[in-house]
Amino acid sequence: MRIPDLDLDLLRGFVTVAERGGFTAAGQALGLTQSAISLKVKRLEDLLGGPVFLRGAKRVALTPEGETLLAYARRMLALNEEAVRRFVSPPVEGRLRLGVADHFVPRHLAPALARLSRTWPELRIEVEVGRSHELRARLAREELDLVLGKRRDGETEGRVIFTEAVVWVAAPDFTAPPGRPLPLAMLPQGCMFRDRALTALARAGVASEVVYTSPSLMGVAAAAEAGFAASVMGRTGLPEGLVELDHLPPLGTAEMCLFGDAAGQSPVVEPLLEWLRGV
């Protein structure tokens, strides 16, 4: 029996439905009607011999088979894109000095950088991880070419990659000491999340004190995971050992952006942004 080939166009429709949460949203993303997307998924299900989505809910959900297929589909589409870019796109050489706020590490950045290296193997990528405002100061001194980091409140500079919720976090068994200020683990002064959190607590009349300061988000997360203090992070980078706290004042959202003059010049920028949004 000959094993049938999986059509990349059908897989792209399937992945888009899974990522967008519905057939209508997927159609809008791909410039197709809802019925066209439904037909692609139906053809894929016929080919595989079973459903990949559970219908009936407001937001479509994957079947167990669909979950398995999604991982394969993403890999196949990524490999196809890398191959096309490798042979069709102009060669890219030289050096790219990229500053990355540690909010992107490792969940958002590593997969995108790996794809970047495979697509343009002659490009030398140098990555420096740090705090957003420090990296942007280095960008201004022309010590970096691009910076991925947070946009400060009220700022308009930079290209928005995605917007995420800023949330209070702590270990699952964390309890604030009764009768004492809320202990906090934070990045040093100058951190936008720190300033926003302390301001929100003060306005809500919640007493607090910073009991642990670390120059890295990993250090802050470690203190919070140990149950020593609560902290503040972007929801997309929430470590597995932490949970959100919903009884503290809301902190709004933050825009993660790309900064630098090279953002509109380098051919690697658009695929890098696309991959970052997709991880």
From TrEMBL:
SUPFAM superfamilies linked to this entry: Periplasmic binding protein-like II, Winged helix' DNA-binding domain
Keyword field contains Transcription: yes
UniProt entry keywords in alphabetical sequence: DNA-binding, Transcription, Transcription regulation
UniProt superkingdom: Bacteria
GO molecular function: DNA binding; DNA-binding transcription factor activity
The keyword DNA-binding is assigned to this record: yes
Stored InterPro entries: LTTR, LysR_HTH_N, LysR_subst-bd, WH-like_DNA-bd_sf, WH_DNA-bd_sf
Domain HTH lysR-type stretches: 6-63
Family classification: Belongs to the LysR transcriptional regulatory family.
Protein name (record): DNA-binding transcriptional LysR family regulator
